[in-house]
Structures are given as C-alpha cells and as structure tokens.
Amino acid sequence: MWAEQIVLGIIGFSSGAVIAGGMFSFLIGLGLISVFADRTHTGKHILMYENAIALGGILFNLFFIYQIKIPAGSFLLALFGLFSGIFVGCWAMALADILNVFPIFIRRLKIIKTIPYIIIGLSLGKTAGALVYFLGRWGV
C-alpha cells in the first residue's frame, strides 16, 4: 500500500515539474521577462525576476494543495486580483505581439486613429465583467 503511494507521489511530482517547466519555458520564449526588464530598465536583476516567478509558482502550488489560509482578508485578495489581472494582460499582449495580431487587424480595418479608445474600451469591459462576477459572487 505504501509503495503505491510513493509511486503515485513520484509520478505526480514529475508531472508537475514537467508542466511547470513548460510554463516557464513558454514565459521565457514569449520574451515576457526580458520585456519587463527592458521596459523598467532593470535588466541587471533578470535573475531576480526568474527566481520570483519560480518561487511564485512553487508557493501557489503549496497553498493550493495544502489549502493554506492567509489571514490578510479582502485587502490582500484585491491586491492579488490586481496583480493577476496585470499578469494575464501582459500574457495576452505578449501572445498577440508574437502572432502580430494587432498590426494585421488594425491595417485591415483601418482603425489607426481609434486605437486608444479600443484599448480603454477593452480595459473598462474587462473591469466591468470582473466587478459583475465578483460582486455577484459575494452577494453585494
């Protein structure tokens, strides 16, 4: 019985390591980390960025698996939501940049002058959708 649990644990750990490695490779392949370092002029701290991403993945997995509670309340939840939204937005923009979606789309529709309004509209729509979802979920 215990041998089966050990084998399952090894398989689970190995699978998680492969998935996490793929995720971090994808981040690096998109150039997301180097773009952040370039835009913030903090290229000398690139190893700190990579360590922070790896540590974030490890800690999130531990919190998720062991259901660790963080006694910080709504403030930390709102802060986490803000940073998660920024991160997901950066992912989406990096993917779109790699695929050259926006230049092709803008050229085809001839909407060069309306780009700022489109970006603001997307941001407001995402914010409104998140507010509707979370406020409805909390019963506010």
TrEMBL record:
<feature type="transmembrane region" description="Helical">
    <location>
        <begin position="6"/>
        <end position="36"/>
    </location>
</feature>
<protein>
    <recommendedName>
        <fullName>Stage V sporulation protein AB</fullName>
    </recommendedName>
</protein>
<feature type="transmembrane region" description="Helical">
    <location>
        <begin position="114"/>
        <end position="135"/>
    </location>
</feature>
<keyword id="KW-0812">Transmembrane</keyword>
<dbReference type="Pfam" id="PF13782">
    <property type="entry name" value="SpoVAB"/>
</dbReference>
<dbReference type="InterPro" id="IPR020144">
    <property type="entry name" value="SpoVAB"/>
</dbReference>
<feature type="transmembrane region" description="Helical">
    <location>
        <begin position="74"/>
        <end position="102"/>
    </location>
</feature>
<feature type="transmembrane region" description="Helical">
    <location>
        <begin position="48"/>
        <end position="68"/>
    </location>
</feature>
<keyword id="KW-1133">Transmembrane helix</keyword>
<keyword id="KW-0472">Membrane</keyword>
